[in-house]
Design brief:
The protein is mainly α. It contains 15 helices and no strands. InterPro entries: DnaJ_domain (IPR001623), DnaJ_domain_CS (IPR018253), J_dom_sf (IPR036869), ZUO1-like_ZHD (IPR054076), Zuotin/DnaJC2 (IPR044634).
Length: about 400
């Protein structure tokens, strides 16, 4: 169909639209923009227009991304890593979920109670991608063999889901952390008083890890450490933690440390070890009996745990070389003050202190004198009693003769 040209005197009708009229091109030069343009600007400003420098910087960025990820430049796995899975782990029974190590199931054995929410989420995602039933069913190798692994009894996947459920619930995670299998293995690794009699181990390396381990259960945070704080959080080279500390700082820290631990407020609980009500039992008496027994057992375990921590603190205090050092310094300060007072008053300064042998001799002499005085008093009392007894006999004899 032919289209006739518009007449030479044609003019378009005026627009009645309320829309913004077309913006005319502004005066000046338009600059192109986009990824290529920004890459060009980066090349000029950061690498002086040198493509070799650009290639070197790009390679370095890829190496950093690979170091933070899994080697393919992927995102950082937050330190979760990839723990091995042995046959014993993969054959766990989901019905026995209370006996399983939930951190081990999610591959967090190296982090355990220090794992944060992001790390737990990352670990769970890794395990799900590896062990999800649908993932196994879509495996080309499995499909080629004609196997059907997409079943509802995928035991380990259920264990993964249960571990994630427990560790993402703050209350249930605390209950599990209270009886963490790793902690229970270490809890008995505590020296006894007899270990410090013959060949005592170094003080600071022995007790510092123990208190660090117990501090996770404290309601009050932060928990004071056994060692006196140093500038830059440097570790002490002195196993007794005495050198390189001024006396007031050392004394204040030691007193605050033992004051904290003798008033230790622990959130550790033992609900995780509660016995379940017998399955199929609808008896209220059975439920009440089980609840009552669980409550009693929790109280007993809590009491034993408090006594255990108190025993550690008592042992640490009894062998703490800093306590002996503090007592010695305080004694020297008292003697120096006494000597200064005597000198200021014009009286001759008293000797710094008698020898231990002289003190023992004076003490023994004083005890002997007291013993002798008591013996004399006893003899005098006995003699008076005998005299009174003889007088009573003589009086009775006279009365009998008169009759």
């Amino acid at each position: 169909m032919a289209i006739f040209p518009l007449p030479a005197n044609y003019a378009p009708p005026a627009s009645t639209s309320k829309l913004t009229p077309f913006v005319v091109q502004p005066k000046g030069k338009l600059i192109t923009a986009g990824p290529a343009y920004f890459a060009h600007i980066r090349l000029l400003h950061e690498h002086d227009g040198d493509f070799k420098k650009l290639d070197a910087a790009t390679a370095l960025e890829r190496e950093k991304a690979a170091a933070n990820g899994n080697g393919n430049g992927e995102e950082d796995d937050l330190g979760v890593g990839d723990e091995s899975e042995d046959e014993a782990l993969l054959s766990l029974d989901p019905k026995e979920w209370k006996k399983q190590d939930h951190y081990r199931v999610l591959g967090l054995s190296h982090l355990r109670w220090t794992a944060n929410a992001a790390q737990i989420k990352k670990a769970h995602r890794k395990k799900v991608l590896r062990h999800h039933p649908d993932k196994k069913a879509s495996d080309p190798t499995v499909a080629a063999l004609g196997l059907n692994l997409n079943t509802n009894d995928d035991a380990f996947f259920k264990c993964i889901q249960k571990a994630h459920e427990v560790l993402t619930n703050p209350e249930r995670r605390r209950q599990f952390d209270s009886v963490d299998p790793s902690f229970l293995e270490e809890v008995d690794d505590v020296p006894s008083a007899s270990d410090f009699k013959t060949n005592p181990p170094p003080f600071l390396p022995t007790f510092a890890p123990i208190f660090e381990r117990e501090s996770r259960f404290s309601r009050k945070q932060p928990v004071p450490k056994l060692a006196v704080p140093r500038e830059g959080d440097a570790s002490s080279k002195d196993p007794n933690d005495i050198e390189d500390h001024d006396f007031p700082t050392l004394k204040a820290h030691v007193e605050a440390f033992y004051d904290f631990w003798y008033n230790f407020d622990s959130w550790r609980s033992f609900e995780w070890l509660d016995k379940e009500v017998n399955e199929g039992s609808d008896s209220r008496d059975d439920k009440r009996y089980t609840e009552k027994k669980n409550k009693s057992e929790r109280a007993r375990r809590k009491k034993d745990d408090i006594a255990r921590v108190r025993g550690i603190v008592d042992l640490c205090l009894s062998v703490d070389p800093r306590i002996k050092y503090i007592k010695l310094k305080e004694k020297e300060a008292r003697e120096a003050k006494k000597a200064a007072t005597n000198k200021k008053g014009g009286a001759p300064a008293a000797p710094a202190g008698k020898s231990k042998k002289e003190e023992e001799e004076e003490k023994a002499k004083k005890e002997e004198e007291e013993k002798a005085a008591k013996a004399e008093a006893k003899k005098a009392k006995a003699a008076a009693a005998n005299a009174a007894k003889k007088a009573r006999r003589a009086a009775r004899a006279e009365d009998g003769g008169a009759a």
